Amino acid sequence: MTADPGKSAAPQPPAGGKGGWWPKVRPAAYLVLGGVSLYLVLPSLLSVFGSWRSLEHLDWPFAILAFACEITSYVCLWEVDRIALGTRAWFPVAAAQLTGFSAGHALPGGGATSTAAATAMLRKARIAETQDIVTAYGAAAILQMATTFSLPVLALPAILGGAAVNHSLATAAYLGVAVLVTILAVGTAVFVSDKPVERAGRAVQWLLNATVRRRKHVTDVPQKLLADRDFVRTTVGKRWKATLLAAAGNSLFDYFALLAALHAVGADPHPSLVLLAYVAGELLTLLPFTPGGLGFVEAGLVTTLTLAGVPGGDALAATLLYRIVSYWLPLLAGGVAYLLFRQRYGSGNARS
Predict the structure, then answer these.
(1) Which residues contact 287 (CB under 8 A, 6 or more apart)?
(2) Residue 1 domain-assigned (yes or no)
(3) Which of these, 86, 97, 220, 281, has the minimum number of CB atoms within 10 Å of its CB?
(4) How many domains does the chain have?
């Protein structure tokens, strides 16, 4: 899933820690919290893995399509990283992202470990210096999250217009194209003008103040959004149109992978409602309690897909297939990418 800053598309820059006792106990606290979280979601996780026998009856053309969509999603992700890093190289960028993804999910430290592994590889490949890499990944992450979480809002007219009534993949494709065009139009307006950003910021600010009781109202959301937009625009430079297209493709092809997985297990879902379930799953990947939202994503996807009209057994099997192509296979690919990178660039230290 795209928005997972671990799957996440781009590894996240490590947060700067403060002095005191918290940095010393933080790893142990996260370990305990992660163990408790896994215990709580273990029944759902076991239910998903227990549906593996259903994969024997897959409609394999759709299963292959899910895999192909996920590969395309990752290619779009690497293109975002390439533009942000200012390089034409494909292999080191892809290898660094996959290795960072695997390291961040297999070793303690999460996003910090992911960023450190990817940064070391890119420096060794002489792609960029550390600060430039962290800046590029930060800009890429902001853009990817913005496009992912704008999907349900931009698809709302199609949902209200009745797109949920038709279950066909053709309708899903039309919905995806419509959302893509809308993302590009809105993204273009955001990059060239301050007004859309300010209006969106004021709307979010009003929503936060109206729905969450707090001692002091939020007042700086428009300014923060403008600062993030300027940061991304400065980082990607004149290639912001290509970056926007690649970021939108990253999210949309990931969504198409989930749709194809549902059709592969024989489900007949509402494409627009599946889109909402997909975004809910993306939100769950951000939970820091388990690597990549492991357990939470599976439980959340099964629940939201069931609410979207997918039978329980199909929701379990489709979630398993989708997580295989979007989480477990990239996790394994990271190890292969690291070995290939070492073979090409050697195993010495990165340049200082």
Answers:
(1) 37, 293, 296
(2) no
(3) 220
(4) 1
* 3, part of any domain: no
Cα separation, 176 vs 212, in Å, equals: 33
In a domain, 7, yes or no: no
Residue 222 — pLDDT band, cuts 50, 70, 90?
confident
Residue 210's contacts (CB-CB under 8 Å, 6 or more residues apart) are none
pLDDT tens for 273-289 read 787 788 777 777 776 66
Looking at the domain assignment, is residue 161 inside a domain?
Answer: yes
213 — phi, psi (to 5°)?
Answer: -75, 130
Q: What sign results for the dihedral spanned by CA atoms 267, 273, 277, 279?
A: positive
Residue 208 contacts residue 218 (beta carbons within 8 Å): yes
Range of the domain at 291: 33-345
| Structure confidence by residue, pLDDT tens digits, 123-180 | 999 988 888 888 888 888 888 778 877 776 665 665 555 444 445 556 666 666 777 7
The most distant pair of C-alpha atoms in the chain lies apart, rounded to whole Å, by 58
What amino acid occupies position 277?
A
- The span from the CA of 79 to the CA of 65, in Å, is 21
Tokens of 65: 């399509």
Q: From CA 233, how far away is CA 236, in angstroms rounded?
A: 6
Average confidence score pLDDT of the chain = 78
Q: How many helices (H) and strands (E) does the chain have?
A: 13, 0
Other Cβ atoms less than 10 A from the Cβ of 202: the count is: 13
Euclidean distance between CA atoms 95 and 334, whole angstroms: 7
Confidence (pTM): 0.77
Q: Name the strand (E) or helix (H) holding 141.
A: helix 130-160
The DSSP symbol for 350 reads P
DSSP E strands: which ranges in 17-128?
none
What dihedral do alpha carbons 326, 251, 70, 263 form, nearest 10°?
Answer: 90
47 by DSSP, 3-state: which?
helix
